[in-house]
Amino acid sequence: MASHSRRQFLLASSSGVLATLAGCSALGSQNDDTTTPTATDKEITTTTTTNGGTTTTTSSTQKTTTATPEEPMGSPGGQSGEHWHGQLFFEVNGERINFEQSKYEELDEKFHFASDGDQYKWHNEQDTVTLQYALNTLPDIEYQHEGQAHIITFRGTTYQSSDSDTSITTMRGETSIDPWIYTLRDGDVITVRIDTDATTKNETSTM
Q: Where is the composition biased (Low complexity) (predicted)?
């Protein structure tokens, strides 16, 4: 009779161990989106008490998972340390400014011109700048905007694109751009053109 009770106890204990193992296995399979699972071996040991003393029963090894946080990806860096160049053409009624003059050179560390044989070549370093910032570093030129309208003051005269007799265009190559939001890039060829009549200018002089 004692032998029969002992068999029932061992069977019940074994069922409990299997249920426990099944439950651990189910939990170990759950991962969130921000962790990387790492599999390790874990030995499960159960203890059974009998009338004659303590009997230790060791189950087979089980794989468990440990969550390891993933390292965040780095964000891209800025333009710091680069030195970019391009060309700027600024025209008023067909006359183009020669920026290779001392009053236009080395005025701002982020955007400036230099005596290097190209009167339209700009230099950009330290940080990226908008075209609006670049224009406002230059003497004789002040750029602002109201809504979508361009307003440029050049040598004391203010031009507004909202005026019926005034046209102001700002281009990057063949593409129209907005100076207050467009950020200069290496190699950009920028044209700012002011015309106060409907006549098409076929020739451009330098001033």
A: 30-70
* Percent of the chain predicted with pLDDT > 70: 57
* Gyration radius of the chain's alpha carbons: 38
Q: How far is CA 175 from CA 48, 105, 144, 182, 189, in A?
A: 83, 27, 20, 12, 10
Token pair of 20, please? 């426990």
Domains of the chain: 2-69 (no CATH), 83-199 (2.170.130.30)
Task: Give 70-105 pLDDT, tens digit per residue.
Answer: 333 222 234 445 789 999 999 999 999 999 888 888
Asked if residue 186 lies in contact with residue 172, where contact means CB atoms within 8 angstroms, the answer is no
